[in-house]
Amino acid sequence: MTVFQFIRSNYMANSPALGEAHQWREQVLSAILFFVLTLGGATAIPSIVLAISENLWSVVVVDIFALAWIATIWRLPFLSYKQRAWNFLLFLYLLGVWFLIKVGLTGLIYLLAFPVLTSLLLNMRLAMQALLLASVSMLVVGYIADANLHVYGFDSHPFMQLVVVTINFTFIAAVMSISCGVLLQRLDNSLEHQRIITASLQQGQASLKATNEELRLIVAAVARLNDIVMIIKVDVDPAGKRHLKIVFVNDAFVRQTGFQSEEVIDKSPAFLQGPRTQSTEIDRLNQALIAFESVHIELICYTHDGSEFWMEADVVPLADEQGLFSHWVATGRDISDRKKAQEHIHRLAYFDVLTGLPNRRLLLDRMSILLATARRSNMISAVLFIDLDHFKYINDARGHAVGDALLTLVAQRLSSSLREVDTVAHIGGDEFVVLLCHISNDVVAGAHAAQAVAEKIRHSISQFFDINGLQYSTTCSIGVTLLPRENQNSHDLLREADTAMYRAKSSGRNQIAFYETGMQTEVEQRLTMERELGEAISGGHLHMYIQAQVDRLGKPVGGEMLMRWIHPERGFISPALFIPIAEESGMILRLGDWVLEQGCLALLQLQAAGWDIPLSVNVSPKQFRQPDFVNKVRRVLKYTGAPPTRLIFEVTEGLLIDNLQDTIARMLELTTLGIRFSIDDFGTGYSSLAYLKRLPLYELKIDKSFVQDTPDDANGTAIVQSILSMASHLGLRVVAEGVETKEQAEFLIANGCASMQGFLFARPMPLDKWLLLQQQIGQSGKESSKVV
C-alpha cells in the first residue's frame, strides 16, 4: 500500500464530510506518523545494535526516545490534531538540531522538513515562522557546534560557509513550504468547490425526486378523484379555426359516463351532449372559450348508454410558456341528486303534496301575472273558489285516507274540466281555486263564461266518486269574482272569491255566487263584531238576564239565563247576531265558561233572596264536546257552592247528530252530579222518539215558531198538542217558549202545559231588577199572575 492509498482509504473510512482540508491534513499526519514509526523502527534497530557495539550510547538513547515519542503521538487518543502536529514538528526540529550537532549535513534534511511539514500540516503563516526558526537555529547551532558544512571557496571562512548554507537552505525551504501551502490552499478551494457542487447536486437530486414524487401523487390523485377531470387541447388549423381534442380523462369520467379513455382521447367533448342539453349553457361555454375566460356551467350530459345526468363543471384555460392558451381543464361533478332534491323542494314549495296541484304560493304568483296581463290586454278573467260541502262528514265517517282519495279525485276532475291555460290549485283542506284566463273581452260575456264553467264544475263534482269499490257523493259551493278591477291585487281576488263562496254556502250549499261589493261590507262588519266581542268579554260589556218561566197561575217556577251584550256605542246587540259569530270563531267556549259561572252565582243569589227555583243555562254543542267539560262543571260547582239540582243545561237537537253514545255517556256523568237536561227549540231539528227514550232528559222546550201559530193555525196547534201528549207519556216537563198573547197561554194551559215563558209574563231583565220587582209585587199584595 502506498502512502496515497493509505491516506485515501483512511480518509474514505473515517471522513463522512468530504472537502474539508483539515481532515486531509489529519489523515496525512496519521499516515506520516505510521510510516515514520514503521520505517524508523526498521532502520533504528540496526542502528541501535551498531551503536551498542561501538559504545555510542547517546545514539541508542536518541533512537529509542524518538521511536517512543512517535508512537505516543500516533496512538494517544486524547491528543488533539494540533497537539499531535506540534509534537511531531517539534520532534523533527529537535532531531534536526541534534543531527546538525552530531553529524553535520544530515541535520539539514530534518530542519528542511520542519517548515515544509508545518505548511502541510498547519498553515502558511506558521510555516514561515518555522522556516525562520530553522534558519536561525542552523546558523547559530552550526556556528557554536562548529558543524562540518564544507563550502568550496570558503574553507578559510567557516562563518561565511554557514551563512551561504543558511541562505540556500532558507531559499529552498521557502520554495518548498510556499509551494506546499499554495497547493494545499488550492486543493482546499477545489475541494470546497467540489463540496458545494456535490451539495447542489444532492439538493437538486432531492428536489427532482420530491418533484417527481409530487407529480406522481398529483397524477394518482387526479386519476382517482371523485370529480370528473378532462384536459382538452386547443388545436388551430391553417384557416385559424380552433378544434378541441380531449387529451386526458380520469377514472371518475370513465365511471360516470361509461366511456373508456381510449374511446374519447383525441375526440371533441361534444359527444357528451344530447337532446335535452341546454343550448343557453352551451352558448355561454362557447363564448368563454372564445374569450379564454373561466366559466361555471350546469349541463345535462349523456352517458355511453344514453342516460341523462346533471354535471356541474368549472372550465379553466391554461397557458403555455409563451403565454398562449393551449389547453382547457374541466373539472365536473354529478349533481343529479342535488337537482332532484331542488326539484323536490320546488314542488314542496309550490305544489300540493296530496293532489300535485299548485298550492297557495304558486296560485298567488300566477294571479299576479294574470292581473298584469289582463290590465294590458283588457281581457276579462275569473277566479273560482270551490269548497266541498260536508267534506268533514266523509273524513269523520270513513277516515282521512278516504278523504284524501276523494280530494285527489276531485283534483283530477277539475283538471280535466278546464283548458291547459287555466290553473287549478289546492290551497288546503277541501278548498280549491280555479283561474280562468282571458275568457272574454267584455264583462257581461265574461260573467256568463265564468258561470258556465262554474256550472260545469258543480255538475262534475256532484257525480259519484268510486273509492275502493264504494260510491261516494259530494257537492260543492263556488264563489266567483271577475278581474281586472281598479286597485285589485291577488290577495283581493282570493278574498273576494272566498267571500262569494261563503255566500253560496249560506244560501243552502251546492250553489254558485258572484262576488258583490256589499259582501265585503258584510265581511268587514262581521270581523269588526268578532273583534269587539272579544273586547266585550274582557271589558265586562256582557251581562246575564233572567226570563222567568211561570205556571198556569203565573207564578215563577223557573227561569232561563240569557246573555245580553250592551255595546258602549251601539247599545244592545241581538244575540242572533253575535252568538253565531262566537260559534264560528271559537269564542263560544269562553262565553260558555262565563255563562256557566254566572248561572251558578245567580242560583246562589236567588236562594239568598228566598227563591228556590231552577235556572236554565244554554250549553253549545262545541262547549259540550270539550274533553274537560265535565271537570270544568265540577270545578265551577265546587268553587261557587251552587246546588247542582237546581241547574238545568239547555242543549239543542244538533248535539245529538254526532257521537250519540258519547253524548249519552257525558249526560249521564253530569246527571250523577244532580244536573238536569232540557232540549231547547224542540221540533225544529233532529226530533226522534228513539233518542228521547235513551237520553236522561228532564224537560222539552217547544220552539216559539210553533207556539206563535197557536191556536189559530191547525198544523201548529196539532204539533204543539202532539209534543205535549208525548212528553206527558214520557214523563217529561214541558216549557212553551215565546208566549206573547193571552190566547196562546189559554191554549197551552188547556192542553196541559205546565210551564210557559214569554213576553206575556216577563221580559228578560237583570236578576237584581227581577228580584226587586218580585219584592214590590209581594208587598203590594198583587197576585203572582199579574207579574209584568
Can you summarize this structure?
By secondary structure, the protein is α/β, with parallel strands linked by helices. The protein is built from 27 helices and 22 strands. The strands form four sheets. Strands 13, 14, 15, 16, 17, 18, 19, 20, 21 and 22 form a ten-stranded mixed beta sheet that branches. Strands 2-1-5-4-3 form a five-stranded antiparallel beta sheet, sandwiched between helices. Strands 7-8-6-11-12 form a five-stranded mixed beta sheet, sandwiched between helices.
Task: Give a description of the structure.
By secondary structure, the protein is an alpha/beta fold. Helices cover 56% and strands 18% of the residues. It contains 27 helices and 22 strands. Strands 13, 14, 15, 16, 17, 18, 19, 20, 21 and 22 form a 10-stranded mixed beta sheet that branches. The protein has a 5-stranded antiparallel beta sheet with strand order 2-1-5-4-3, with helices on both faces. A 5-stranded mixed beta sheet has the order 7-8-6-11-12, sandwiched between helices. Strand 1 and strand 2 (242-249) form a beta hairpin. Helix 12 (360-377) packs across helix 16.
List the helices and strands and how they pair.
Layout: H1 3-14, H2 21-53, H3 57-75, H4 81-102, H5 106-121, H6 124-145, H7 158-224, E1 228-236, E2 242-249, H8 251-257, H9 261-264, H10 279-291, E3 295-302, E4 308-319, E5 325-334, H11 336-350, H12 360-377, E6 380-389, H13 391-398, H14 400-416, E7 423-428, E8 431-440, H15 443-462, E9 465-467, E10 470-472, E11 475-483, H16 490-506, E12 512-514, H17 517-539, E13 542-550, E14 556-567, E15 571-573, H18 575-585, H19 588-608, E16 615-618, H20 621-624, H21 629-640, E17 647-652, H22 660-671, E18 676-682, H23 689-694, E19 699-702, H24 704-707, H25 714-730, E20 733-736, H26 742-750, E21 755-756, E22 765-766, H27 767-780
Parallel strand pairs: 11-12, 14-16, 16-17, 17-18, 18-19, 19-20, 20-21
Antiparallel strand pairs: 1-2, 1-5, 3-4, 4-5, 6-8, 6-11, 7-8, 9-10, 13-14, 13-22, 14-15
Helix pairs in contact: 1-2, 2-3, 3-4, 4-5, 4-6, 5-6, 5-7, 6-7, 12-16, 13-14, 17-18, 19-21
